[in-house]
Design a protein that fits this description.
Length: 309
């Protein structure tokens, strides 16, 4: 049995770990992104660049995860989570393109975001640890964090460096936004997954019906990048190494935007002004092919409550 002192120490440790995911909100004042206008041509709506893509995502077959039960004492729970490796990754029924055929390994994307990131509301300490609903919430928070930790640990074995990846992600963020602004679909196809390309192609087409051209610029360097979530998606139940990894990043960057009509007149935006934009992008990579590269597989629109004080 644990002494009261040790139990209190464990409670404090778990409480701190559960708060990791609760500090994701940023107060950006009344600043709203010009980037949605870059994609869809709506002059009056300058919310996130990527607010439309995932509206229909509820139809995707999200993978299920087995539930775990916490015991009355909190001493043994973490060992359950850490020893059950299958809990920390998900196995899904892959599409025909994503399955292994003979000795050939496909690099096709699973085609969906597994467990899309959502900020968790803060709850009081007493409610978290002294009510049934609070304990359930704490259990779920810990599971979410352990899944991310497990995915990152697997990724590090392949030579992953956080700083190096953040630099690559910032470059991809700039490149993809620039390609969207130019309407360069041919080059864009190489930087995003198949489903993502289809969505972006439709957005560009919709925008071009309203504006003749647009100007977009990112003020370098980016203000901040951080990882919000990491997830593994298995495509072969018999081999847990056949996985894709998805990293959800929060990107804060200053941007400039301006849109023009067919006569070259400015109809939206102002490229002389810098706007602080908060975007949530999901990058994906195959973990079972040495030549695989990171691609954008999805964008998550920040909630309106996170864009204003």
């Amino acid at each position: 049995m644990m002494t009261p002192f040790k139990r209190l120490h464990l409670v404090r440790t778990l409480y701190r770990s559960s708060q990791i995911g609760e500090s994701s909100s940023y107060l950006l004042g009344s600043c709203k992104s010009y980037s949605s206008a870059l994609s869809n041509g709506s002059e009056g709506n300058f919310r996130s660049f990527h607010s439309h893509l995932l509206k229909g995502q509820d139809g995707f077959p999200f993978a299920g995860v087995k539930s775990l039960t916490l015991r009355s004492t909190m001493a043994a729970e973490l060992s359950i989570f850490m020893n059950n490796r299958r809990m920390l990754s998900t196995q899904v029924k892959a599409s025909a393109q994503a399955r292994q055929v003979g000795q050939q390994i496909s690099l096709s994307s699973p085609g969906f975001i597994y467990e899309p990131y959502e900020p968790r509301d803060k709850i009081p300490f007493w409610k978290r640890w002294f009510t049934r609903s609070g304990l359930r919430r704490t259990k779920n928070d810990i599971i979410l964090e352990l899944k991310s930790a497990y995915a990152i640990a697997k990724l590090r074995k392949t030579g992953y460096s956080k700083n190096q990846f953040y630099n690559e992600a910032a470059n991809m963020y700039k490149e993809i936004n620039t390609l969207i602004a130019k309407g360069d679909k041919r080059t864009l196809r190489k930087a995003v997954t198949e489903n993502m390309f289809s969505a972006l192609k439709n957005e560009i087409k919709q925008r071009e019906t309203a504006w003749s051209r647009v100007y977009w610029e990112m003020v370098e360097p980016v203000v901040k990048i951080r990882t919000l979530r990491a997830r593994l998606i298995g495509v072969d139940r018999k081999d847990l190494n056949k996985t894709f990894i998805q990293l959800t990043l929060e990107i804060l960057a200053k941007q400039k935007f301006e849109a023009y009509d067919s006569k070259g007149s400015v109809v939206a935006g102002d490229k002389s002004k810098e706007v602080l934009v908060r975007d949530i992008w999901v990058f994906e990579k195959s973990m079972f092919h040495a030549g695989a590269t990171w691609r954008l597989c999805g964008r998550i629109s920040p909630k309106a409550s996170q864009l204003s004080p």
